[in-house]
Amino acid sequence: MNAYESKEDEPDLRLPESLNEFQDAIIELMGDSSDIVYREVRFAGIGGLVVYVEGLADPSGILDSLMEAKNDDRTREGQDGVSPGQALRELKINTLSEGRIMEIDSLGAASVCLLAGGTVVYLDGLAKALAAGTQNLKQRAVQEATSQSVVRGPREGFTESISDNTALIRRRIQNPSLRMRYFRMGEETRTSVVVMYMNGKADPNILRELYDKLEKADLPSILESNYIEEMIQDQRYSPFPTVYNSERPDVISSALLEGRIAILVDGSPFVLVVPALFMHYFQSSEDYYQRGDFASLVRLLRYFCFAIALLTPSFYIAITTYHQEMIPPNLLLSLIGQREGIPFPAFIEALIMEITFEILREAGIRLPKSIGQSVSIVGTLVIGQAAVEAGLISAAMVIVVSITAISNFALPAFNVGISARLLRFPFMVLSALFGLYGIIVLLIMLGLHLCKLESMGVPYMTSFAPFRLSDQKDALVRLMRPFARKYFGSLKKQPDPARPSEGSS
């Protein structure tokens, strides 16, 4: 599907052959909007009309070309006997200097072109027009990525312009095997979506499944890449994300070279990647810009931080409520002294502190940047200190909740941190009811869920379960460069046992 092709449910009326009828048809289709400009011109003695949306398009190149052609001796001498079709071909081939020009013959295609920032050039007496790419959208410049910052590595981040984003990836992967497929999705917004992959590395079965999901997606509007993410994920009600996202071009380029597939959505700086495995959320682009031994140590630390963010409050509740014999005597006496006079059990303490911290976190995000960080830090210190002095919360609980929150921020992927935040509360409830036994049971259920989970048909725990020895070079640790390789052999869709494989009789 090309950029100016109309969908089946869009107006598909043929363009009229009269200049006045063409203008009336555009006005009837798009309304008498003040930002739609109609500029009358002449070419080869034939009247014409240049139509564009003010602010979205920059038609100065087209208008300058038409003004120069008007004074061209060859054009003036050939005015007599030139048909509209010949004039349109001359206009397309020799006159207009824009790089992307195509012929259209329907009102639907004309409206798509205008709303995408293009310019329509129409000549009287012909049921065709030219659609030129003259986009002049106001957009944010390429800046440093804010959600996945690194100490060493590229500073560029994606923008809201899909053409800029594809160019950032093309600059890093100058390989003819890099392929793109264009979609226009959303009945009301007609948002541009691009699927990008490396031919020969991406699994054709995963590509086919992704195309089917995108073509069947019935979305009235798409304003951000999460609209697509919720439509293509395999398990919608899992707390763990099965579609990776990033605003760093180097991360997406690396994923493409591994054999994964990127999905770019116009208007969003976050690019989606499938399939996404559990270990991908603990890998940072900075791991490959530093020594392998240090990167491996930091990666192991991230797994440990995930365990702390998930289990620390529930473990504290279970130990202090049911298993005091596991605490060293000196520490036990200290905890008893701190809890003397506290009116709430450990579970209520943890619940109050966790909810308070979540409120402060959200408030820090929504407040203006100049005061948001200050309010978060001061609010946490003041409320925590006041709660301890008032005898409502023990000092040990403040420490536990603080360590949990800090460990959550150490995770490189924001959405897997959300998973830890969501699962923390069920663990707290079961630890308050059954102690360590409740934690162990929920951990077993969580492990079974992770092993059952898939991303585009690829097992979510690939490299761990099923275990692949060759993938351990870049799973828990990253070996030194001469011994490590970026894998893509594991990113294959698992065959459906109920469906015969291709080529079988």
Describe this structure in words.
The protein is built from 16 helices and 12 strands. The protein has helices at residues 19-30, 60-70, 73-77, 84-95, 107-115, 162-172, 204-216, 225-232, 249-258, 292-321, 329-339, 346-366, 369-389, 395-409, 414-434, 436-452; strands spanning 36-43, 46-53, 101-104, 119-123, 129-132, 178-185, 191-198, 244-246, 261-265, 271-274, 454-455, 458-459. The radius of gyration is 30 Å and the shape is elongated. Helix 12 runs antiparallel to helix 15 (414-434) and helix 15 (414-434) packs antiparallel against helix 16. With 505 residues, the chain is an alpha+beta fold.
Keywords:
single chain, elongated, 505 residues, 16 helices, five-stranded antiparallel beta sheet, alpha+beta
Give the total of beta strands: 12
Low-confidence stretches: 499-505
Structural class: alpha+beta
**What is the CA-atom radius of gyration, in angstroms?**
30 Å
How would you sum up the global shape? Answer: elongated
End-to-end C-alpha gap: 34 Å
Query: Main sheet, how many strands, which sense, barrel?
Result: 5 strands, antiparallel
Helix content: 40-55%
Could you report the average pLDDT, rounded to the nearest whole number? Answer: 83
- Estimate the strand proportion: 5-15%
Strand order of the largest sheet: 1-2-4-5-3
Helices and strands, in order, run as HEEHHHEHEEHEEHHEHEEHHHHHHHEE
